[in-house]
Amino acid sequence: MLVHEQTQGLCEPAFISIWETAPLAYEGVMLRSRKILISLALITFATAITLFLLFKTQHEPTYQDRPLSYWFTQLPVTPVLFPPQDVYSVNVVGFMNVGGQQYGNTALGDTNAIEALQFFGTNAVPLLLRKLQERDFMIEKEVSKIASQAGVRSLPFRKADLERYQAVTGLINLKSLPPDALQLISVLSTNSHQEIAWAASYVLKRRAAISTAEKGQLNR
């Protein structure tokens, strides 16, 4: 009986230890599998986006052998995070890097993107208006959330909120906008989506201020 009790006493800790560590090992395997699945999903998603963009850019106007969509990504960011009462209270930020995606040129003071946009003229307006009112898809938000939890830092898609700020920069710097474009921006300034409304309102106020300043210089 004594031997049996000693043997049982020695076996019990080992038996309990196995069952305690098994869930941890299982969780580790599941976490690695989840990361692999997320990575594969992101690669597939990125490949689909790349193929779509390659096909799309073939039909875009170009400047210095680069398509309009490229020059848009190089536009500086003008963040409008509050009701734009004062049109000069918002400063242009050279560039931002979020989720592995770059918004704006890292070379501060570079004006090539603005020059390209002015070269495109009204051909750039449809893209700028689309970016001004775009929102992130729900699937993008969910993928971003899951990827962030899994430790994935680089994502294959761009944030609509940050591209909206680039669209603000572009719409401010175009020398002229068609009447229908101005009308759409005016409608967007009352949009139920707060940030879209603020961005559109800022574009209108800033363009009006620039126009007034230019007229004042001509009248001198």
Topology (elements, then pairings):
Elements: H1 2-57, E1 62-63, E2 66-67, H2 68-73, E3 96-98, E4 101-103, H3 112-120, H4 125-133, H5 138-149, H6 160-173, H7 179-188, H8 194-218
Antiparallel strand pairs: 1-2, 3-4
Helix pairs in contact: 4-6, 4-7, 6-8, 7-8
Give an overview in words.
With 220 residues, the protein is mainly alpha-helical. The chain has 2 domains: 1-59; 61-218, no CATH class. It contains 8 helices and 4 strands. The strands form 2 sheets. It has a two-stranded antiparallel sheet with strand order 1-2. A two-stranded antiparallel ribbon has the order 3-4. A hairpin with a 2-residue loop joins strand 1 (62-63) and strand 2 (66-67). The protein is elongated. The termini are far apart.
Percent range for helical residues? 55-70%
Query: Sheet bearing the most strands, described?
Result: 2 strands, antiparallel
Mean pLDDT level = 78
Distance between the termini: 112 Å
Number of domains: 2
Number of helices: 8
| Count of strand segments | 4
Unreliably modeled segments: 1-16
Percent of residues in β-strands: under 5%
Q: Numbering strands along the chain, what is their spatial order in the largest sheet?
A: 1-2
What is the radius of gyration computed over CA atoms, rounded to a whole number of angstroms?
27 Å
Structural class: mainly alpha
Q: What's the overall geometry?
A: elongated
What sequence of helices (H) and strands (E) makes up the elements?
Answer: HEEHEEHHHHHH
